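Observation: inputs received (chain + zinc ion).
Thought: call the complex predictor directly.
Action: predict_structure
Action Input:
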Amino acid sequence: MDNALSDLIRISNETGKDPALTQAAGGNTSVKTGDGKFMFIKASGTALKDMNAHRGWRKLHLNKLHGVIKDKYLAKMPADRREREIINRHLTYCCDGIESTARPSVEANLHAILDKCVIHLHPLVVGAYVNSKNGRAEITKLFKSEKYPPLWISYAPPGFPLAIKTSRLVANYEKHYGRKPAVMFLAKHGLFVSAKTAPGAMRLLHKILNRCENNLPKLKPLRLKQPAAKKILEVKSAIQKAVLNTTGRLLPVTFIYNKTIACFLNRPDAAKLLAMGPLEPAEMVYVNGTPMWVETPSTEKIASGMKKIVRDGNKPVSAFLVKGVGLFIAADKNTVSIVKDFATGTTLVRLWTLHFGGLVPLTSSEQNFVKRWYLAAP
Ligand SMILES: [Zn+2]
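Observation:
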């Protein structure tokens, strides 16, 4: 196996197995070949942990990829046509003999401009900063002694807009520091690290994660009071009927109660915090958005809340935070753990952001872009 490919599989599997670092098929990785001509990159739709020597990646011509960002014609196209055009171009740049429609990661253009080994994740401990009002100032403070500080990228939608904005900021950074940034924090999104070698990228990743984590507040210890079994059964039944009523699907309902959920439900502003909206595009793409707040767990109330969500152009949610009871997930056994990772992870991030000046979620126009393009894409 090509050394670059074996490095790619190793860093992907190692980072992808931890749901605190990335959830569902989110995040992406790449490694450029030693001759600088090609880049192996994660394929869209495969989880990092599931990549192996035979699947979950594509190999592309780097020089052709560099042309995409410079293409002025693409920059003027409407977003939906442009993103489709780029996907088609990326597929023609593949040179791996793989007979698959699996497309290179949507962030391939961004990976192309960075150092040899690139790891992009959505770690929860990073979410605490990239989703909070004072997050940028906190990151500046945390890394002020670094000779080459992290680069902060304000929000841009994934894909071409993010690649264009980042390439501009990377060029400015290079002018100032004489080298490309090795670490980038992406507002309302996640983290990029890059290095010359795969072990170097992993070391850098852990250094950043540790520093971010050590600066986080500890959740106040709460005496967990498990709700009564009868109450849990009643709520499960109400949610199951409401989901059936709204989607026509009879799904098992799972109950989850832990320290994060207890802390969140204990807050008087829990409903308001959830109503602020999704934290990042992946939450919309993989689990149909933020869990629904349920004040009164009756079938009618839950069904009418779900219908409103659908009327607003969203897909029906599968996670429900029920006041005074806990988290409930209506999903088949293949997706329940993904929904659980997102629902508990984003709840924890919401709590952490309160320590850094408050939550900054996606605005409605940012959500609409994700809905129009990513959720409508085939
Ligand atoms: Zn991402």
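Thought: report the result.
Final Answer: The two ends are 32 Å apart (CA to CA). The CA atoms of residues 67 and 105 lie 17 Å apart.
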